[in-house]
Amino acid sequence: MYFDSQGRRVSRARFNQMYAAFKNRQELIKAGLMNRRDLVKLGLLSGGYLAAKGGLSAAWAYGGGGGSQCASPPTTPFTMQLPIMPLKQPVSVSSLSPAPQINPNTATNPATGLPFEGRTRTHQAPALGFAFPPPVVYQVTQKPGLVTMSNQLPQQTIWGFDGISPGPTYVANYGTPVLVRNVNGLQGDNSGFGNPSVTTHLHNAHTPSESDGFACDYFAFGQYYDQYYPNALAGFNSDHKPTGDINESLSTLWYHDHRVSFTAQNVYKGLAGFYLLFNQFDTGNETTGFRLPSFPAFDIPMMFNDRCFDPTTGLLVFDTFNLDGILGDKFLVNGVIQPVLHVHPRRYRLRWLNSGPSRFYQIYLTDLNNLNANNQFWQISNDGNLLPKAVLVPAVALGVAERADVIVDFTQLAGKTLYLENRLEQLNGRGPTGNVLAAGQGNLLLRIVVDQPQVADQSVDPATGPSYYALPSTNVTPLVQRSFDFDLSYNGQWVINDGLFDCNTVRFKVTQNSVETWEFKGGRFGDPPWSHPIHTHLEEFQILQGAPVLYPTGGGYQGSGSYYGTPPPSGTNLARKDVVRLTPNGDVIAFFRFRDWLGRYLLHCHNVIHEDHGMMLRFDVAVTGDNNQRP
Amino acid sequence: MPGMTRRRVLAGSAVLPVAGVMEAHGDPGAAPNRFAPPVPGREVMRRRYFPDLLLTTHEGRQVRFYNDLLKDKIVVLNLMYARCTGACPLVTSNLVKVQRLLRERMGHDLFIYSLTVKPEEDTPAELKAYAAMHGTGPGWLFLTGKPDDVELLRHKLGFADINPAIDRDKSRHSGMLRYGNERLALWGSCQGQARPEWIVEEISFVMPRGAPMAATS
Question: How many angstroms separate the CA atoms of B7 and B2, rounded?
């Protein structure tokens, strides 16, 4: 009698066949042949290894992998004020020791036995005429800190920039380059998660590779890394010499840890903050330029995230071995669970950021005493950059790392209490169901009380139709059109075009100062389906087709909003973006100009759990690129 | 009228969410000091993820998962079964190369553990034959155990698929690796089908200061 590996009886002929395959496999293994293609060719593996297996939709239950381990202790909401992060203060360049230098400081630090600096590549900016050292210099240290996230939970040990989370807010200006000396001061017990090896990415910035916070540019405790942020408009060294294209201005950026394989743990532990860029139009002063509400009094950055706490110790916990995505059951804004903000009856600019790790939001302004009220507001950016015009919206959808600046006019809401409410349903870490919950039934993030005295408001009313930046033309023939499939392999490994991440594998090369279009395709075989917020470094993009829209209220979501072939983008999708929500079956075409800088960059899913486990690739910008269309 | 009905429903629920918010989140007087004291990171990990189950190695030795296999060690964990023709041979042959690259540390402070997903058929003898076939060396253990224990461990280590139909299909077991430094509570995951050199680099991420650990020759 003969049996197969499943214990089923098989014929002698079949058994012999299986045995031959087994022997062949042994030979191959001995010979060191391990390439999947070879095995497929030899018939030892079936083809379509990554293909979907139909008919599996039967009886799976949601929640198995995504957040089911989250059972945080109860906390009373709205008992703490919304924290406002301090502004990062510059230091004198002479206070930096050793002095900053253009080439990496690879001398060995006798105190650590490691090079002083973690950087491996020369600063590109000075050779292009940027001052070195630049006029503004900062020093920031990643270090543990004790913080209060709720007055009913114990103090939490986080890792923060300068020991706080969110970290201090940088206020930068176009035309003024800065150097940030980033010191790794992370030591001590990690409470179960977090790798004390870091690299800091300035998200959305047009940054030379060596200062971008490339995932593999990590450095250890006791080392520093000097990052040079030119704060120069894209095109300054290519199609808009010498000052760059004003229509590429950026405004709301954020910085966060990007340590390869440990980004999720490190950001969850607190390593993130805001970096705001101003210029002659977006001035931070409501009496000049575009006359947007003044910073910081009426211009408030808000970082949203969700977290889990241990029911026994009340301490922050990370779901280390959940690779679908982590959902928290506590909602924080600027580091505090469900805080309160008191405002004056006037216009405010609120800068919203979803800092992850995995949840998608659709945020409404809810009046719990009048759930019928449609409290619309003006969306003025979609990611870091002002739209051509403000758009009146009922809500904003945010995938991980997406941002939106909105202007809310509280004038008519004086005396009221409102809530920022996430009404998007999400049951596991892979992505939202697409259902929009009824008003008042979602996650209340922030209470806003309009109880402060009347004050002057000199900001421009968006209803008067002010224009911001025009969109740069996309009427250019791309040099290369590339295509990327974001999938989960047959054996549960996140992949892009079936490929796995590796710091040293350059998947393709883009020609410096060229135009490309990239097609992003969402996983077709997800069961349950998944969504991916796709992010690109160095350059932002414009969506030509397949732009995602708000999740519809009242049902009708079919993994939709993002189909190749949908009408061209309109409204808030007429934008420059650096993250796009790839919905299930989504198909997005994005237009890029890769300008000015050279070197290593990343394309990845910003569900940081997916990112850490292979849904990322390295591409390089080089003087001469390639035309690999499915890299 | 439908409009009326809807308004009434909403008007009725208008009060509820406020009450729900206040009550669902419990006792406002709750004080922080009712919580258990903090424990070190490695203890957090042990309690959450590492039950000290009794397992059997391919050499027929009885071992405790936490105390004998993880404690104070740097480890790599993967799933397999002896007669697997899918991802296992690829991942195993990758790990053979990892083992070769890290031979100076294998069995000293670094260990590889391959857990069968078919404990019913993977007896120690089966696993021993599998180990011999792949030429695995010291410090690499193939593990089996009571089916319920193996299943619990697989779930604890996050190797279960959210979709039960996929999860039941043993040929689709996770091709991911877990790797960690137990003492430092540093744990990560990487793809078993990555290049062996990259897997070595990933393992080095949980070494203090990320010092390179591959044999130089």
Answer: 9
B169 to chain A, any CB pair closer than 8 A? The answer is: yes
- The pTM of this model reads 0.88
The domain limits of chain B are 2-34, 41-210
Is the peptide bond between A133 and the residue preceding it cis, with omega within 30 degrees of 0?
A: yes
In a domain, A615, yes or no: yes
Report the residue of B133, B156, B191, B207 to disrupt the A interface, i.e. the one with the largest count of A CBs within 10 Å. B191
Rounded CA separation A261/A194 (Å): 11
Whether A220 sits inside 8 A of B210 (CB atoms) is: yes
Enter the ipTM: 0.86
> Would you identify the CATH topology of the domain B41-210?
Glutaredoxin (3.40.30)
Residue A118 forms part of a structural domain: no
H or E segment at A141? strand A136-147
Mutate to test the interface with B, among A187, A441, A493 (most CBs of B within 10 A): A493
Q: Which residues of B touch A64 (CB under 8 A)?
A: 160-162, 164
Per-residue model confidence as pLDDT tens digits over A382-420? 999 999 999 999 999 999 999 999 999 999 999 999 999
Whether A328 and A448 share a structural domain = yes
One domain for residues A405 and A530:
no
| Residues A133 and A93 sit within 8 Å (Cβ to Cβ) | yes
Partner-chain residue, chosen from A114, A310, A491, that has the shortest CB–CB distance to B175: A491
| Cα-to-chain-centroid distance, residue A186 | 23
Q: Are A440 and B17 inside 8 Å of each other by CB?
A: yes
In a domain, A557, yes or no: yes
Residues A289 and A148 reside in one and the same domain: yes
Q: Residue A567: give the domain boundaries.
A: 480-622
